[in-house]
Amino acid sequence: MPKYNIPVEAALEVIGGKWKVVILCHLIENKRRTSELKRLMPGITQKMLTQQLRELESDGVIKRIVYNQVPPKVEYELTEYGWTLKGALDMLCAWGEQHIEKTYPNKEEVLLDS
Amino acid sequence: MPKYNIPVEAALEVIGGKWKVVILCHLIENKRRTSELKRLMPGITQKMLTQQLRELESDGVIKRIVYNQVPPKVEYELTEYGWTLKGALDMLCAWGEQHIEKTYPNKEEVLLDS
DNA sequence: TGCTATAGGCACCTGGAAGTAACAATTGTA
DNA sequence: TACAATTGTTACTTCCAGGTGCCTATAGCA
User: Fold this and answer.
1) pLDDT score, position B9
2) CA torsion angle for A80, A13, A6, B26 (degrees, to 10)?
3) In chain B, what residues touch A18 (CB-CB under 8 Å)?
4) Where in A4-60 does DSSP place strands (E)?
5) Alpha-carbon span A107 to B3, nearest angstrom
6) pLDDT at res. A3
7) Could you give the residue ranges of the DSSP H alpha helices within chain A?
8) Residue B77 belongs to what H/E stretch?
9) pLDDT of residue B113
10) Which of B14, B91, B111 sits opposite A4 (nearest CB)?
11) Which residues belong to any copy of the HTH hxlR-type domain (chains A, B) (predicted)?
């Protein structure tokens, strides 16, 4: 049984860490295959991706869909509960965008894909 | 010069880590003295508190107000720029609250202060 | 026969985030 | 004289999130 001093800690327990917010932002745009996520997040390793996806799944915010075919195909998408995070995630993304613009006026220099 | 694959990473660079979101949530409610923050966050150490406050300050989201008196008095409050985070932080806090209610129906068991 | 693509498991290791503990500085006060 | 209160610094240490590398299974194809 966890103990929180302030409710927001419960949110951080679910979406905290280096990768989960990024994963969820990608899943807001679209459901994604494992290999897609890896491509979208060049810095993540297979192990971390799997691990973070497992944790998000066991927290009930994403769902894993396995297609029985070879080579394997697995898709991840937000659950209904996961969609309740959309508001917070969207605002975080928007803030990140304008923070880049404010901090680096020519943002091409810091945005890798785009 | 940092490199981001997705804009939200810029937000995580500012409010990521174990403590910053919690600190900011407390500063949304009120400006706070150092000792108040320590009391509100029983788990944090003096060193981590100072360190996180310094980083938030150099990112321009909080401001440090020193009163020339002994013993020292220092207050921290959000800057105008820091207030642009309010939307995202509020939604995160709200999500945390309802996540606790959903996960632990009698939330008294997991909420320490309140 | 060997290579590809896909998703993932597992053992081990490391870097840096976070924690610990001691110290400084100043003034009032018991 | 010694301690309290407040904020902060510094050196040292610990620990685990995250990284590395190697392994599995399966079917198709050159």
Assistant:
1) 96
2) -100
3) 12, 16
4) 32-33
5) 10
6) 83
7) 8-15, 20-29, 34-40, 46-58, 80-83, 86-103
8) strand B73-78
9) 63
10) B111
11) 6-104
Nucleotides in chain C with any atom closer than 7 Å to protein CB: 5-11, 17-22, 25-28
How many other C-beta atoms are found inside a 10 Å radius of the C-beta of residue A6? 21
Structure tokens at B43: 């788990």
Cβ atoms of B98 and B49 within 8 Å: the answer is: no
Q: pLDDT of A50-103, one tens digit each?
A: 999 999 999 999 999 999 998 999 999 999 999 999 999 999 999 999 999 999
CA of B58 to C1' of C20 (A): 26
> Nearest CA to B86 among B44, B26, B34, B32?
B26
Contacts 24+ apart (CB under 8 A), B63-68: B65/B31
Q: Which two tokens stand for residue B75?
A: 């207050």
Sign of CA dihedral B40, B44, B45, B47: negative
Sign of the CA dihedral with A25 first, then A28, A29, and A32 last? positive
B contact residues 23-62, partner A, Cβ 8 Å cutoff: 25-26, 40-43
Measured CA to CA, the distance from residue B83 to residue B111 in angstroms comes to: 26
The domain made up of B7-109 has a fold known as: Arc Repressor Mutant, subunit A (1.10.10)
The answer to whether some atom of strand D lies closer than 7 Å to the beta carbon of A70 is yes
The answer to whether the Cβ–Cβ distance between A3 and B104 falls below 8 Å is no
A70 in reach of chain B (CB within 8 A): no
